[in-house]
């Protein structure tokens, strides 16, 4: 089952997601990127119905770009989160999008922020959060190990511990993950954690460290 | 209600669409705008009519970005321009969403021109009172492009063109002086064309340069003044050379 998680550290936010694309008993691909870079300083990790996920996240991304061209300044993370929630809410009682979203962003005035947006248009501003069956393990780990103002190394270590737990304890667990980070220098891919697939090495960082 | 299904743009007995021609008049009264295509650069220049003292000049942007690789300048009714530019921006993103590819310059020009044409053939509306100069780089061939549209909805590609006030003089200048240029030479050519019809110098023109890698960049006033100074120096040197030659013989 798909997992998306996110954590806020000191002036940065991390959003991670598994990279499996599954349909019943078949794994279509193990390197599907589910964390979309919305604009220079925003990340949107999404899980749920594959068609809706791609359609909805691209729709949000293009509308963010349109706003930027119209107004020469980008939308803030909070505004983008509220816009996203609004779109989900409008479609909810007609033709709902089955997409759960962790939205992370960095604004110069506010710093890093993380938003939890579920498929029925719930919106919460959070420091740590997760979606999917993996959340049963991740949230407990985060409760125990999270503290405010973590460094990048500490935050990624926490994410790695979550990934390890998901791999270990979830039946039909996704093996490969992508970790993306957003800070004052922008949104970018930080790392991949791969155990299966064409390019999978033995991921020494995971097996040794934790 | 019945009034609004009458076309405003109708043919005259001798085959003219007067509303479209009047719209072209509105364009001729608008500020001067020039566009020049180089080998690796495209330049847009627009006349900035003197700003009233109390107006915040930063809120009056004459050159608009339609997408990361496309920009537009226009002459004519600025309010109409806002509407067209907005529709074009939406179309650029819509195109990216549906086909996962950025628009070509020709596509968006055809779209804008199509929109302008629609308003010459609909009931109860008047044509858009502006001509646009659209520049950009083709995302597939990396070639720079310059297009012009007008209120009738026609469009075509140009190496260099001008519209708005005194566009004929500017176009004549460009025809006489155009050659394939790149980088700074393209910018200088555009500014020289504008200076033919715009009073004095840097404060009265807005110039934007688009390159393949850096997108659209508005030139600062200081930079424009530098170019103007260079151009004036070149002109002075040319004058001196002309005066010098006959005396020698």
From TrEMBL, chain A:
<dbReference type="GO" id="GO:0005839">
    <property type="term" value="C:proteasome core complex"/>
</dbReference>
<dbReference type="GO" id="GO:0010498">
    <property type="term" value="P:proteasomal protein catabolic process"/>
</dbReference>
<comment type="subunit">
    <text>The 26S proteasome consists of a 20S proteasome core and two 19S regulatory subunits. The 20S proteasome core is composed of 28 subunits that are arranged in four stacked rings, resulting in a barrel-shaped structure. The two end rings are each formed by seven alpha subunits, and the two central rings are each formed by seven beta subunits. The catalytic chamber with the active sites is on the inside of the barrel.</text>
</comment>
<comment type="function">
    <text>Non-catalytic component of the proteasome, a multicatalytic proteinase complex which is characterized by its ability to cleave peptides with Arg, Phe, Tyr, Leu, and Glu adjacent to the leaving group at neutral or slightly basic pH. The proteasome has an ATP-dependent proteolytic activity.</text>
</comment>
<dbReference type="GO" id="GO:0005634">
    <property type="term" value="C:nucleus"/>
</dbReference>
<protein>
    <recommendedName>
        <fullName>Proteasome subunit beta</fullName>
    </recommendedName>
</protein>
<keyword id="KW-0963">Cytoplasm</keyword>
<keyword id="KW-0539">Nucleus</keyword>
<dbReference type="GO" id="GO:0005737">
    <property type="term" value="C:cytoplasm"/>
</dbReference>
<comment type="subunit">
    <text>Component of the proteasome complex.</text>
</comment>
<dbReference type="InterPro" id="IPR016050">
    <property type="entry name" value="Proteasome_bsu_CS"/>
</dbReference>
<dbReference type="Pfam" id="PF00227">
    <property type="entry name" value="Proteasome"/>
</dbReference>
<keyword id="KW-0647">Proteasome</keyword>
<dbReference type="InterPro" id="IPR035206">
    <property type="entry name" value="Proteasome_beta2"/>
</dbReference>
<dbReference type="InterPro" id="IPR023333">
    <property type="entry name" value="Proteasome_suB-type"/>
</dbReference>
<comment type="function">
    <text>Component of the proteasome, a multicatalytic proteinase complex which is characterized by its ability to cleave peptides with Arg, Phe, Tyr, Leu, and Glu adjacent to the leaving group at neutral or slightly basic pH. The proteasome has an ATP-dependent proteolytic activity.</text>
</comment>
<dbReference type="InterPro" id="IPR029055">
    <property type="entry name" value="Ntn_hydrolases_N"/>
</dbReference>
<comment type="similarity">
    <text>Belongs to the peptidase T1B family.</text>
</comment>
<dbReference type="InterPro" id="IPR001353">
    <property type="entry name" value="Proteasome_sua/b"/>
</dbReference>
TrEMBL record, chain B:
<comment type="subunit">
    <text>The 20S proteasome core is composed of 28 subunits that are arranged in four stacked rings, resulting in a barrel-shaped structure. The two end rings are each formed by seven alpha subunits, and the two central rings are each formed by seven beta subunits.</text>
</comment>
<dbReference type="GO" id="GO:0005634">
    <property type="term" value="C:nucleus"/>
</dbReference>
<dbReference type="InterPro" id="IPR050115">
    <property type="entry name" value="Proteasome_alpha"/>
</dbReference>
<protein>
    <recommendedName>
        <fullName>Proteasome subunit alpha type</fullName>
    </recommendedName>
</protein>
<feature type="domain" description="Proteasome alpha-type subunits">
    <location>
        <begin position="4"/>
        <end position="26"/>
    </location>
</feature>
<dbReference type="Pfam" id="PF00227">
    <property type="entry name" value="Proteasome"/>
</dbReference>
<keyword id="KW-0647">Proteasome</keyword>
<keyword id="KW-0963">Cytoplasm</keyword>
<dbReference type="GO" id="GO:0019773">
    <property type="term" value="C:proteasome core complex, alpha-subunit complex"/>
</dbReference>
<keyword id="KW-0539">Nucleus</keyword>
<comment type="similarity">
    <text>Belongs to the peptidase T1A family.</text>
</comment>
<comment type="function">
    <text>The proteasome is a multicatalytic proteinase complex which is characterized by its ability to cleave peptides with Arg, Phe, Tyr, Leu, and Glu adjacent to the leaving group at neutral or slightly basic pH. The proteasome has an ATP-dependent proteolytic activity.</text>
</comment>
<dbReference type="InterPro" id="IPR000426">
    <property type="entry name" value="Proteasome_asu_N"/>
</dbReference>
<comment type="subunit">
    <text>The 26S proteasome consists of a 20S proteasome core and two 19S regulatory subunits. The 20S proteasome core is composed of 28 subunits that are arranged in four stacked rings, resulting in a barrel-shaped structure. The two end rings are each formed by seven alpha subunits, and the two central rings are each formed by seven beta subunits. The catalytic chamber with the active sites is on the inside of the barrel.</text>
</comment>
<dbReference type="InterPro" id="IPR029055">
    <property type="entry name" value="Ntn_hydrolases_N"/>
</dbReference>
<dbReference type="InterPro" id="IPR001353">
    <property type="entry name" value="Proteasome_sua/b"/>
</dbReference>
<dbReference type="GO" id="GO:0006511">
    <property type="term" value="P:ubiquitin-dependent protein catabolic process"/>
</dbReference>
<dbReference type="GO" id="GO:0005737">
    <property type="term" value="C:cytoplasm"/>
</dbReference>
<dbReference type="InterPro" id="IPR023332">
    <property type="entry name" value="Proteasome_alpha-type"/>
</dbReference>
<dbReference type="Pfam" id="PF10584">
    <property type="entry name" value="Proteasome_A_N"/>
</dbReference>
